Every structure is written in C-alpha cells, then in structure tokens.
Amino acid sequence: MSELQRDLVGYGAEPPHAAWPGGARVAVSLVLNYEEGGEQNVLEGDAASEGYLHQDLARGRPALAGWGMAFLGCSASTGSTDLHCSPEPTSLPR
Questions:
Q1: Side-chain half-sphere exposure of 65, counting CA atoms within 13 A
Q2: Angular region, 22: left φ>0, alpha ψ -120 to 50, beta rest
Q3: How many CB atoms within 10 Å of residue 41?
Q4: How far apart are CA 11 and CA 18, in angstroms?
C-alpha cells in the first residue's frame, strides 16, 4: 500500500479542554469496527474507482452488488459469529 498524502494535523499544543461528568479525568471509549470489504481506489494502483455506491438508493442496487459476499462466502453476518464469540466476555477488562 502506498503512503497517501493526507492532512492529519491535530490539535498539537492546543488540545480542547473537556469537562467530564462528575469531574472525571479519564474517559474510555471502545469501538469495534467490522468492515465487510474494501473499495477500489486509483490512488492505490487500482485500474478504476468504485463505479457505484451501495448507499445511493435512488439509483437502485446494481445486479453485481454483493458478488464478493457470494464469491468469497463471507459477509458481515458470517464474520459476526466470530466476533461475537471472541474474546470471551469474562476476559475483557472492566
């Protein structure tokens, strides 16, 4: 994968000052993002970018819009079983 030039400038020396409930000093957020696949991107060397957006309901769903799931035998519903079973809830910090 190539190194794309992106503007990732953060707050630097001037971070926002949050006032947490109850005067708390630490906030923890755990996010599990399960992606179903990738998109073609000419900046990454692919011949073309995606030809459709599955979120664009006004255009209708293309006939091949799920070919990857059928061809590879995987989808969010297939992988969700693995994610649900691992890790064991008792092994997570509380």
A1: 12
A2: left
A3: 14
A4: 13
* pLDDT 10s digits, 3-58: 777 777 778 788 888 788 888 888 788 887 766 667 777 888 888 777 665 555 55
Answer yes or no: are the C-beta atoms of 48 and 40 closer than 8 Å.
yes
User: Is residue 15 reached through a cis peptide bond, with omega within 30 degrees of 0 on the bond before it?
Assistant: no
Q: Are 45 and 2 in contact (CB under 8 A)?
A: yes
Separation of first and last alpha carbons in the chain: 36
* Alpha helix segments (H runs only) across 1-94: 67-72, 76-85
Break the chain into its structural domains and give their ranges.
66-94
Model-wide pTM > 0.70: no
